[in-house]
Amino acid sequence: AQSVAQPEDQVNVAEGNPLTVKCTYSVSGNPYLFWYVQYPNRGLQFLLKYITGDNLVKGSYGFEAEFNKSQTSFHLKKPSALVSDSALYFCAVRDRRDDKIIFGKGTRLHILP
Amino acid sequence: DGGITQSPKYLFRKEGQNVTLSCEQNLNHDAMYWYRQDPGQGLRLIYYSQIVNDFQKGDIAEGYSVSREKKESFPLTVTSAQKNPTAFYLCASNTEGLSTEAFFGQGTRLTVV
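Structure tokens for the assembled complex are given below, as produced in the milestone run.
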């Protein structure tokens, strides 16, 4: 079965430091992987996706993600965190069998001033 | 502007009453989804539809019903059979194809008292 795991419920990072939010996946065939961000009482916003090609994917707001096939991971990264990056982050995978979108449980990112 | 609109933003209902949440999109997307979000549980799929007049149950469909009479609209009814309906409900849509990202509405917070 297709699945996504986000092992950390919460990540705390000091402003200006690099951040990483972890995601691992389990899929059959080639993965289609996504990151979304959610601010309080709002819908999700798309950040970036990996479909094929370069393992380092660049997205919105200075975020990037590194696809690692051997470790089945798709970690979200940013070189220098901002307080405004504080939000809930979701990793997702598309299910090739029925086109469903499967989400991880989310990781709450706190950027400390 | 193209987008996906959920209404209302906040909804209060008495226990035992059915309630319908609206979701409309003008993105010409074929697929639409309903998710339920509870703290610490991420997004759980309720129903999804890939084409007009067709829809499939997600992981937690019990106590919910949907219709897809028009491409633009995918209303969700929370029935009295849903044991714990108080939650944040998110609607999403995307074009056909595994590589496409989803667009989300701003959500409806339903409180049943």
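The radius of gyration of chain B is 13 Å. Chain B has a mean pLDDT of 93. Further analysis is deferred to the final report.
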